[in-house]
Specification:
The complex is a heterodimer. By secondary structure, chain A is α/β, with parallel strands linked by helices. Chain A contains 20 helices and twelve strands. Chain B is α/β, with parallel strands linked by helices. The chains are: A alpha/beta, B alpha/beta.
Chain lengths: 482, 216
């Protein structure tokens, strides 16, 4: 069994989705976030022409940069590794989550590490690293405010850039009161700065006392052997400046060739993610503390992770590896905003998750996800690296068919439909009967209130019947005659 | 097989192109060529653009004629906000006459208790209103990170248009990257509680930029 599948709930998507739709607190949080996410991005993109920039030209360039890296990924990884080593960093490789945990714990033990402060890393979620660290007697502290909140709550992130988007202010207040040992107070949105300040105070002490910092990397730059970190809170800078040891955990697909490539990508990443023209802190980290410096890590370790990625290189799905984790696809997804991220059952939610989860945890272990789409195509129209997400989901659905992973009834139905559709005379005859029948079922307003064959379709809406019992062909022929 | 060799072998099989040496040579040639993507066309004065952008990101900006005017301005700015007249300075700006302006300054690495950090910058970027800070013995990264207030001195002549120009300047003047390059654009912020933006997440709560002189 795929090791990632052990931690995945993706097979329970339908049941979890039904739960999430009925959770009023979650729905309140999602409805509040939705217009903010899409509105900020739209405003940022609309302002690009003021500086003589253009979204389509930029995303063409960004997609090109990512493709160039992926099309010779082995070469760029080797160049990155050489340059990182030349600057004194150690470069390690991990095939899966288990190997990530082993390597991190080994580094921690070698350096006598007791406490780890962490800047957001999705790879660490893939590996369930916090559990492994705790089991090894090492205290992990998440320091991104959103990640900190969900660590206190014992939950997983529900969004790749806003991990606690599913939490309301009242829930955060209750959590802080309990975990920080103080009485709970009545809070309004005017108190949000006070809560942020409270977390700042608690986390500052952790920053100052941690022995090791763990971060992800938004990109690796091959020409300089550099990890780049893009954050707003400054926690990324803290965990890479104060502790003695810095461990970067990142996927092998994150490499880009040059500093200029990085500069180009930075024109779209913050705009796509939060609508900012630039994030507050963009850090380029290379090597270790110099001999004459009195701060910065004396030990820097890169862990380059496969965990399913290598097998996607050169496959029908390689385009998904261009992903720069901006979150725009989920921010514009009607399915995501109906369910929140937890329904998806593994690390990555939304459209990109519906592609990545089957690829990284096994197609047979995430059967519903490639179907979690309304076909609106918003995701691919906002994606800054032009990933054809609907096509990739479609490809996964086809593969499910080919491998016989769909239910018997669905497979039989599709085969029957294909057989009929290949015989025009029969097809027209049958559709004529179907159109008359639907018209007969409809009420006076041309609507079917309850459709007996598939009642699920009509539980929350009516099925309108157009054409008054005539098929499209009949209507078309009639219009030609007129 | 080691994890490294296993992963690289599977990536190579996926890439499926053979002739790794030729591909490596092409990659290295690409690094030499130094191509860049679409860049903005900024109209008007770069320094003014830098100041306006920085203000839009919640920094405050002041302009003074020369370095000699800086300490008095800092003392006045801090007093007006009832902030302590006490700071840690990066070593490259430690030589200004802070004491004469009534500031008690220590230079070096910042600690948690430092209320104010004063730094210079390597250069600044007009496109986004961004400071480019390099780590180094004379320019510790903690000065712009730990204190609640960060004050940065920005020579007008060091304002460049874009991140690409900043990288070119770095290459020309330093050759290699230092351990940390930090691009800083305003006070730290978070939107993690109900998407409400709060200034002062983990880094400084306020950033004051002092632009020195005219663009030459
Ligand atoms: S798939 Fe595209 S839109 Fe979605 S997170 Fe990745 S880069 Fe962003």
């Amino acid at each position: 069994m795929n090791a990632n599948a052990r931690h995945s709930q993706a097979m329970h998507f339908t049941a979890r989705a039904a739960d999430k739709v009925r959770n009023p607190v979650l729905q309140q949080a999602l409805q509040k976030a939705k217009p903010l996410f899409s509105g900020k991005r739209a405003k940022a993109m609309a302002a690009l022409p003021d500086d003589g920039l253009e979204f389509e030209a930029l995303r063409e360039a960004c997609a090109g940069i990512r493709d160039r890296a992926l099309n010779d990924l082995d070469v760029w990884l080797e160049i990155f590794e050489e340059n990182a080593r030349a600057r004194g960093a150690e470069v390690l490789w991990a095939r899966d989550g288990g190997e990530i945990c082993d390597l991190v714990i080994d580094v921690a033990r070698r350096h006598g590490v007791k406490k780890v402060t962490k800047s957001k890393s999705m790879l660490s979620e893939e590996a369930h690293l916090n559990d492994a660290l705790a089991a090894a007697g090492i205290e992990p502290v998440e320091t991104d405010l959103g990640e900190y909140i969900i660590q206190l709550a014992g939950e997983a992130p529900s969004h790749i850039i806003a991990p606690a988007v599913h939490k309301t202010l009242q829930e955060v207040e209750a959590l802080f009161a309990e975990k920080h040992g103080r009485p709970q107070a009545a809070r309004t949105s005017a108190d949000i700065p006070a809560l942020a300040k409270e977390a700042r105070g608690v986390l500052r002490q952790h920053f100052l006392s941690a022995d090791m910092g763990i971060s992800g990397a938004n990109f690796l730059i091959a020409e300089t052997g550099t990890a780049t970190l893009v954050t707003n809170e400054g926690n990324g800078r803290m965990v890479t400046t104060l502790p003695r040891v810095h461990v970067v955990i990142t996927g092998i697909e994150k490499v880009v060739p040059t500093l200029q490539d990085f500069a180009t990508l930075m024109r779209l990443l913050p705009r796509s993610a939060t609508g900012q023209t630039i994030s507050n802190y963009v850090s380029l980290l290379t090597g270790t503390r110099a001999d004459d410096e009195s701060e910065g890590p004396t030990k820097t370790v890169f862990i380059l992770v496969d965990n399913g990625r290598a097998d996607v290189v050169g496959s029908h799905y390689q385009d998904i590896l261009r992903c720069i984790r901006c979150g725009a696809c989920m921010n514009h997804c009607p399915v995501y905003f109906s369910l929140g991220g937890h329904a998806y059952g593994w690390v990555y939610p939304g459209p990109m998750g519906s592609v990545l989860t089957p690829l990284y945890t096994g197609i047979e272990n995430a059967l519903d996800l490639p179907h979690a789409s309304t076909g609106c195509r918003q995701c691919s129209s906002v994606c800054p690296v032009r990933i054809p997400l609907p096509e990739l989901m479609h490809g996964l659905r086809q593969e499910q068919q080919r491998r016989g992973l769909r239910p018997w009834g669905e497979r039989f139905g599709l085969r029957a439909w294909a057989w009929i559709a290949g015989r025009p005379t029969l097809y027209r005859a049958l559709t004529r009967i179907a159109a008359r029948y639907l018209n007969w079922l409809a009420d006076g307003e041309g609507r079917i209130r309850l459709f007996g064959f598939a009642p699920g379709w009509t539980t929350a809406r009516d099925l309108p019947v157009a054409g008054g019992g005539k098929t499209f062909f009949e209507q078309y022929a009639a219009s030609k005659r007129d | 097989m080691s994890a490294r060799d296993d992963i690289l072998a599977r990536v190579r099989a996926g890439v499926g192109k053979g002739d790794a040496d030729a591909r490596r040579a092409a990659a290295l040639a690409r690094l030499q060529a130094g191509q860049s993507g679409p860049q903005p066309t900024l109209t008007g004065d770069l320094v003014e653009r830098f100041c306006a952008k920085a203000e839009s990101l919640a920094s405050t900006v002041a302009r003074v004629d020369d370095y000699a005017a800086v300490p008095a301005h800092v003392a006045e700015w801090l007093s007006a906000r009832q902030l302590p007249l006490q700071a840690v300075t990066a070593l490259d700006v430690a030589g200004l006459d802070w004491a004469e302006a009534g500031l008690s300054c220590r230079s070096g690495v910042a600690v948690d208790a430092d209320p104010v950090g004063i730094s210079g910058c390597f250069c600044a970027i007009a496109e986004t209103g961004t400071l480019m800070l390099l780590s180094g013995p004379a320019t510790p990264a903690s000065v712009s990170l730990l204190p609640e207030t960060h004050i940065a001195l920005v020579p007008a002549a060091r304002v460049v248009a874009s991140m690409e120009d900043a990288f070119a300047l770095l290459k020309a003047e330093r050759g290699a990257l230092p351990r940390a390059v930090n691009f800083v654009s305003g006070p730290s912020r978070t939107g993690d509680i109900e998407q409400t933006i709060v200034l002062g997440a983990h880094g400084p709560c306020r950033v004051h930029l002092i632009v020195i002189g005219e663009n030459s």
